[in-house]
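[step 3/7] fold_predict: job queued, chain A
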Amino acid sequence: MSEIQVSRTIDNFDLSTRLLAGAILCLGIGLIGLASGLSGGDESPYLGWLWGCSFWLSISIGMLMLIMIFRIFNSHWTPIVRRQLEHGVAAFPWLALCLSPLLLVAWFGGENSGILWSWIEVQNVTYDPLKELVIADDVLYQKKSWLFKPLFFQFTFVFVFWNILWT
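[step 4/7] structure written:
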């Protein structure tokens, strides 16, 4: 294959294909890091993943808030900015995809399912400075235990992102 044919083949790939390939590569590297953190019992990769997803989710929620404010006032100049913000809010499905490995760890993590959220495992110790108390013996946990079940947490996650995607 000559050099001209190779350069023509490379030029056929557009920017979106290259960006998608880079995103898939980065997602794969991140998933490998999460798997190594789960096998080693280290919570640092999960906290980093959670911080990153929370950062981008907060930016998307801020854009959504600005869109709602712009729709309330309905002035003539806001559609110019609002269209850009609507494109930014289109990241919600990708954020749900990025947050899903954390839910998979909570579902299928076995004894490491509480590696990120300690309240999932009821035998963990709470952060009470006065005495050492197991989460299952905590009064607030007993009153709100249905909120802290992994199944409720996961259904809430799916419900929220499903409503954002299809409304």
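[step 5/7] annotate
Residues 60 and 138 are 35 Å apart (CA to CA).
The chain has seven helices and no strands.
exit 0
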